[in-house]
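Appendix B. Worked example

We walk through a single record from start to finish. Start with the input: the chain for Glycine cleavage system H protein, Catellatospora bangladeshensis, length 124.
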Amino acid sequence: MHLPSHLHYSVDHEWADNLSGVARVGITDFAAEALGDIVFVELPGEGTAVMAGEPCGEIESTKSVSELYAPVTGTVVAVNPEVVADPGLLNADPYTAGWLYAVEITAGPRLLTAEAYRELCEPS
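Next comes the structure step. The output line below is what the pipeline stores for this chain.
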């Protein structure tokens, strides 16, 4: 499982690239692998208020449909049009090309470090 050390992770398998200002948000490699081939993504629109820990969209794969949870609280300021057009980017590159949306953060919960998230996903 690939986990960039500079990102912050939620227990719901989302990441945020910073915890102040504007952050890009996405799903983890662990989540993308568990979902299988991702075929559809429903994201919050620009201007939508999202709340940490609350559903804000859906990700559909050939296996299932899963809710997308916001890792931070704020307002969506951008949506990645490439991932909407090609949801498979989430499987191929979840941490760069597969980012989902950017949010102007007003509050954020305590997110996990890469090491803490790895321990959550791969308990000994």
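Two observations about the output. The first helix runs from residue 29 to 35. The CA atoms of residues 26 and 96 lie 9 Å apart.
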